[in-house]
Amino acid sequence: MKVLLVEDDAALARGITEALVREGMVVEHCADGVRASELPASPGGPGQAGGTGDFDAAVLDLGLPGIDGMAVLRQWRARGRGFSVLVLTARSRWSDKLEAFQAGADDYLTKPFLMEEVVTRLRVLQRRQVGLPRPVVQQGPLSYDTVAATFALDGAPLALTAQEQRILAHLITRPGALVTREDLVRHVYARDLDPDSNSLDVLIGRIRRKLAPHALIHTERGRGYRLQHEHAGAALD
Ligand code: CA
After folding, report:
1. 81 and 186 share a domain?
2. pLDDT > 70? residue 173
3. Greatest Cα pair distance in the chain
4. What CA–CA distance (Å, rounded) separates 145 from 151?
5. What is the mean pLDDT of residues 140-146?
């Protein structure tokens, strides 16, 4: 998943970024509220719920230079930006929490906090964002624990690189749905990559080999990919 971190404390931002990257997430950091509020509202691709644009979630500090985090949040929501927002702030009064929820926050965590809790809450928000009711997603022999962010194939742990993990997580949390190349590239890579670049095909090829002999990832030629367990006899690509 791709996370937007809005935090003006440089040391804290570094710590959070390192922790999230260690957990396989892609992080874009923004240190001031004005820039954060002006982030372009890129349209959600086809099949993408809520127009989340580039990001799956944001971690938002409230005390920011220039413009308060609460105002940033209101502007995002006014512009229809649908990604999940976890407010991370020193403000611990109920009135602050209520105001944040009314401005469109999905979750609220006060400083000091446990890094593990930020990671876990982001993963849960992501699961809810895509409308999955259960913490474990199953497609035939492949299962994905959305809280631990781990995969198992035929019951055995599946070892993946961070990039492979992000791609497979993006696909399996949208079971049976067409995921476009553009969508995968936006949510999986740190920087803009040409969706036509063959590095995506190379990665998909590697994941397919790890999932063998099961053919779970189907290509929709020129459009994207679909992860679905199809019973024997069903048409596979
Ligand atoms: Ca701050």
Report:
1. no
2. yes
3. 60
4. 6
5. 97
Answer whether residue 52 shows pLDDT above 70. Answer: no
Distance 8 CA to ligand 1 centre (A): 5
Is pLDDT at 143 greater than 90 in this prediction? yes
Do 29 and 71 belong together in one domain?
yes
Asked whether residue 232 is assigned to any structural domain, the reply reads no
The CA radius of gyration of the chain, in Å to the nearest whole number, is: 18
Rounded distance, CA 67 to CA 64, Å? Answer: 6
Residue 156 pairs with which residues in a beta bridge?
A: 153
- Regarding whether 182 and 217 lie in a shared domain, the answer is yes
Cα 63 to ligand 1 centre (Å): 4
The parent domain of residue 193 ranges over: 136-227
Instruction: Output the pTM of the full model.
Output: 0.88
Are 6 and 123 found together in one domain? Answer: yes
| 172 CA distance to ligand 1 middle (Å) | 36
Task: Calculate how far, in angstroms, residue 3's C-alpha sits from the geometric centre of ligand 1.
Answer: 18
Chain-centroid distance of CA 191 in Å reads 15
200 Cβ contact list (under 8 Å, min separation 6): 181, 184, 185, 193
Task: pLDDT band for 206, please (50, 70, 90 cuts).
Answer: very high
Query: Domain of 217: which CATH number?
Result: 1.10.10.10
No. of helices (H) and no. of strands (E), the chain: 8, 12
pLDDT one-digit tens code per residue, 57-109: 999 999 998 899 999 999 999 999 999 999 999 999 999 999 999 999 999 99
